[in-house]
């Protein structure tokens, strides 16, 4: 099971890792017209509206046009040495689901089985605490014992079905890998544990913070006895905002 967890986490990270750094025509970046929508990839990636660029940095703003003029604050500052890619972005459409979720509020519950094939049940909430990390707070019943658990997980976008189609208003589902760690207090087994989760979220179009259904599969590995973990399946509703939504 430990080998399976390592393989799962490595596959998740490889699926979202960026390409190798590319050489940039920085002068072309400096010559971009103000308020050009761009996509910047550095340590983080963002869609934003170009403000200015010098030999040392690139400045851009999430607000466009007159709104940007009224708000002089710069949302994004990228150091030149850290910038790997800069591209003009479509003015009307982009794959907003590609980036991490910047706001999560969810409620759900479900059940599953442990290593002894005994059923378990749980319910709880999921909130974003630091993009792209979420915090799960849950009440559960395991082997006839009640308990509470707190768990932190990365929420890593992996792939979507169907694939991105520009200007499409069709709903789709996106898969997220969620490696994490947690602690369960109360009667019964566990204590500290590591966790591997896969979440499938229905994205509504256009990209708004509507409540959407999700399904999440989880395997937990107690630190003291990794082979005596459990499997759980949750169903719930989530309100979310993507990191590149809401520019206009």
Concise overview:
With 248 residues, the protein is mainly β. It has helices at 2-16, 26-30, 65-70; strands at 37-41, 45-53, 57-61, 76-79, 85-88, 101-114, 119-130, 133-142, 145-154, 156-161, 172-186, 192-203, 211-222, 230-242.
Q: What does the model show?
A:
This protein has 2 domains: 18-91, SH3 type barrels (Roll), CATH 2.30.30; 98-242, Porin, CATH 2.40.160. The protein is built from 3 helices and 14 strands. It has helices at 2-16, 26-30, 65-70, and strands at 37-41, 45-53, 57-61, 76-79, 85-88, 101-114, 119-130, 133-142, 145-154, 156-161, 172-186, 192-203, 211-222, 230-242. A hairpin with a 7-residue loop joins β13 (211-222) and β14. Mean pLDDT is 79; it is low at 1-22. The protein is mostly beta strands. Helix content is 10%, strand content 53%. Strands 6-7-8-9-11-12-13-14 form an 8-stranded antiparallel beta barrel. It has a 5-stranded antiparallel sheet with strand order 4-3-2-1-5, with no helix packed on it.
């Amino acid at each position: 099971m430990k080998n399976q967890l390592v393989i799962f986490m490595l596959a998740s990270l490889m699926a979202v890792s960026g390409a190798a750094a590319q050489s940039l025509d920085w002068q072309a970046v400096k010559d971009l017209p103000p308020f050009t929508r761009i996509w910047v990839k550095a340590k983080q990636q963002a869609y934003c509206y170009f403000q200015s660029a010098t030999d040392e940095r690139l400045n851009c703003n999430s607000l466009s046009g007159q709104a940007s003029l009224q708000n002089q604050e710069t949302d994004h500052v990228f150091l030149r040495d850290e910038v790997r890619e800069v591209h003009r972005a479509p003015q009307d459409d982009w794959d907003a689901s590609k980036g991490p979720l910047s706001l999560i509020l969810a409620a759900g519950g479900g059940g599953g089985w442990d290593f002894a094939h005994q059923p378990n049940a749980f319910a709880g909430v999921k909130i974003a605490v630091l993009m792209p990390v979420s915090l799960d707070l849950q009440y559960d019943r395991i082997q006839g014992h009640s308990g509470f658990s707190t768990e932190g997980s990365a929420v890593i976008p992996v792939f979507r079905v169907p694939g991105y189609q520009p200007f499409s208003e069709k709903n789709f589902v996106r898969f997220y890998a969620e490696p994490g760690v947690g602690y369960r207090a109360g009667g019964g087994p566990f204590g500290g544990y590591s966790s591997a989760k896969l979440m499938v979220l229905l994205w509504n179009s256009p990209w708004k913070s509507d409540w959407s259904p999700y399904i999440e599969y989880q395997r937990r590995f107690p630190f003291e006895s990794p082979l005596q973990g459990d499997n759980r399946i949750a169903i719930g509703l989530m309100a979310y905002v993507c990191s590149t939504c809401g520019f206009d």
